[in-house]
Task: structure prediction
Amino acid sequence: MEDLNIVVRERLEKAAELERQNVALYPNGYRVPDRIKHLLANSGGKKAEELESDQRTYTIAGRVLSVRSFGKSTFMHICDSDARIQVYVQKNLVDEQSYSLAKRLDIGDIIRVSGPLFRTKTDELTLLVKDFVLLTKNLRPLPEKFHGLKDIELRYRQRYVDLMVNEQVKETFRKRARIISCLRRFFTERDFLEVETPMMQAIAGGATAKPFKTHHNALDMELYLRIAPELYLKRLLVGGFERVFELNRNFRNEGVSTQHNPEFTMLEFYQAYATYEELMELTEELFGQLCMEANEGRMSLEYQGEVIEFSAPWARYSFLESLSSLGDVPQEAVESLEGAVDYARSLGIGIEHFEGHGKLLTKIFDLVVEPKLIQPTFIYQYPLEVSPLSRKTEKAPEFVDRFELFIAGREMANAFSELNDPRDQRERFQRQLAAFEAGDEEAHQMDDDYIRALEYGMPPAAGEGIGIDRLVMLFTDSPSIRDVILFPHMRPEKKGR
Result:
């Protein structure tokens, strides 16, 4: 830390000296018409003779990555957001102040240069500087080999530095943008309407999760940051929009891990006159297309050492079947609450007094089945107790028409045939209220307006939610959710860092 303070102090002194010499450290208004990647694409294959006969002037800007001075010559590498290139400053081609400044540049300074292209004796494409301007003076040194630091927290906290020096991190977020563009195109091509719903809600609904609470001063009312947009999207089905989707931010006041961030991005879509079985097929198609676009036309990828194959059809197991055949859960635990309690305790699972058989089996599933689901797998027909918004399975009403998709040992999507009977929905909410009063902080609240909307009539429908952050983790081979969120939430920074 002391070494860093010394370097910062030296750079501040250099900046003050440059200002005394009338060098503007942060000028504005300089246009930059060219991009480095375009220069490389258009001229990277040209020979020295072709470049010499061209002599067009290009103007680029970028951050200085290296400076090497040899008497009357200075070589630098600069980069913009897409690529890097070498530039060459010769003393007799620029004014004296510009050349003096070029020799005193620091790694991290941002400059604008203009001139023609040529090839050096080592055949490297290089811009011969005829005009040179310092645009931004760097006051804090870039860390050496930043991508190799063991202090991962520092990379997440100072993402702006991480992006400067680690090209792979940039590529992760470029791929994230391409994935989101592909999602939008997939649904708009199928006549889904993209919509926006409230992020501050009077009732935290659409999922079972602990919300963040805030207060609106003008209205003098408590509001919640949304945990899901589901109930508003289904109101739109009532209103006559039969296919809707939203790419949204959700907020859940829960733990932080390699798979969880309190603020995260979700895709939710709803289709009238569809069932959850139809959404299984649509999901296979969607993930296949995403894999093709994200992985250069291949239908498989490697994630953390495992090869994941996306060719359909994918494996399908009922919830109870998965417990027995994949998790080796004893039959007495599957069939009775007492057996489930005993087995859960043997696994070290905490048991709350308000939890019934279905919720306890879900905890067991999370521990003994989920980690085994490496290849894309649908688990369907979940217990009613953990699915307050799903349609009951007609032949087994203690279960619901719901599936979750698992890939690489984690949940990737959650979908179900929607409950559109307002009487049944009210009863479900009332049972959730009883669970909340018994101590379940994640229980769903009563939403009278949503019940009223259902009373106007919502068509039979199916809906699905897909976690975008986990999706990007999968397609970028990223081990932590923090690797795919530009500015993940962190604990308060320690003083002196």
Remarks:
- The first strand starts at residue 58 and ends at 70.
